[in-house]
Amino acid sequence: MVESDPVQLVAERLAASTLTVVLTGSGTSAESGVPTFRDAQTGLWAKYRPEDLATPAAFAQNPQFVWDWYQWRRGIIADVQPNAGHRALAELARRVTALTLITQNVDGLHQRAGSDHVIEFHGNIMRSKCSVQGCGVEVDLTDDTSPPRCPDCGGALRPDVVWFGEPIPPAALESALQAVADCDVMLVAGTSAQVQPAASLAEVAKERGACLVEINPESTPLTAIADFVLAGPSGRVLPALVNALGSQNA
Ligand code: OAD
After folding, report:
1. 3-state secondary structure 206-248
2. What homologous superfamily does CATH list for 6-32+82-122+168-249?
3. Is residue 217 within 8 Å of 244, Cβ to Cβ?
4. Whether residue 122 lies in the annotated active site
5. What pLDDT shows up at residue 41?
6. Binning pLDDT at 50, 70 and 90, where does residue 233 land?
């Protein structure tokens, strides 16, 4: 093994880390068969941009239409399995002193791979919540083909995800900010780092002195400030990292 192998060097940092934070984006689910957020949509939905469907205004204007889009995406997610990258992150949590996983993904695949206490920064597509302001009832998704009604107030239920122009759920934001302020290593995997405030979490970690590691086959706005760039698919890089950590601990 070459000493300057970046995977080995990152593994050394992980072995010494007292708090590791991982931020993931839709690229970590790509190898499961879930299209990344900015990938072209397919089939009936190909002519719509997610940015035009994932908004409170779109839901207010045509709840059925937005609901149908989410049902399509839920169908994709229900049919796929966590990949080697998801499993490696669940394993990583067992190998380091402490790990906080923050995900922008709404697909629940980290949890299905065995990760606990995941901070869902943008919500979860498999839950619904009441769209009426001030009601806020949350329910597990039912299989309805049209937006179900709120059991409390009768308002339309909507997917429990963060839409464009909406704030991050306060508890998720607070826990994430605390973790990035305290961590000594932060891995950022499979995100284009274009959406705030998620992307700025990495900048906060870096400013506070953490070692920033990017895992992505493409470069992003974070590439220039990363201490290590492990260029490649997360389904290959993350297991390699866990393996290298294993040899560190041996
Ligand atoms: P994007 O679609 O913007 O970016 C996906 C990233 O994954 C890109 O940088 C790809 O290079 C990378 N990628 C692709 N395949 C990969 C692989 N196998 N392994 C690792 N990386 C890979 O998706 P996000 O950055 O997740 O928010 O988008 C962030 C947020 O933008 C979403 O959560 C969504 C959207 O606004 C909301 O809906 C609130």
Report:
1. HHCCCEEEEECCCCCCCHHHCCEEECCCHHHHHHHHHHHHHHH
2. TPP-binding domain (3.40.50.1220)
3. no
4. yes
5. 66
6. very high
> How far, in Å, from the CA of 37 to the mean position of ligand 1?
5
- The pTM (predicted TM-score) of the whole model is 0.94
Domains of the chain, residue spans:
6-32+82-122+168-249, 43-79+131-161
For every residue of 18-39, DSSP letters joined together read SSEEEEE-GGGGGGGTPPPTTS
DSSP code, position 54: S
CA-CA distance, 21 to 121, in Å (whole number)?
13
Q: Which CATH superfamily is domain 43-79+131-161 in?
A: SIR2/SIRT2 'Small Domain' (3.30.1600.10)
Residues 6+ apart with CB under 8 A from 106: 120, 122, 123, 124, 125, 159, 161
- How far apart are the C-alpha atoms of 186 and 113, rounded to whole Å? 20
How much of the chain exceeds pLDDT 70, in percent?
95
In percent, the amount of the chain with pLDDT more than 90 equals 78
118-153 confidence digits (pLDDT tens): 999 999 999 999 999 889 899 887 677 788 899 899
- Measured from the Cα of 192, ligand 1's closest atom is 9
What residues line ligand 1, using a CB cutoff of 6 Å? 25-28, 30-31, 36-38, 54, 104, 122, 162, 189-192, 194-195, 216-218, 220, 233-235
Confidence check: pLDDT of 3 > 90? no
- In this predicted model, what pLDDT tens digit does every residue of 38-97 receive, in sequence order? 775 666 677 788 878 899 999 999 999 999 999 988 999 999 999 999 999 999 999 999
CA count, 13 A, side-chain hemisphere, 67? 20
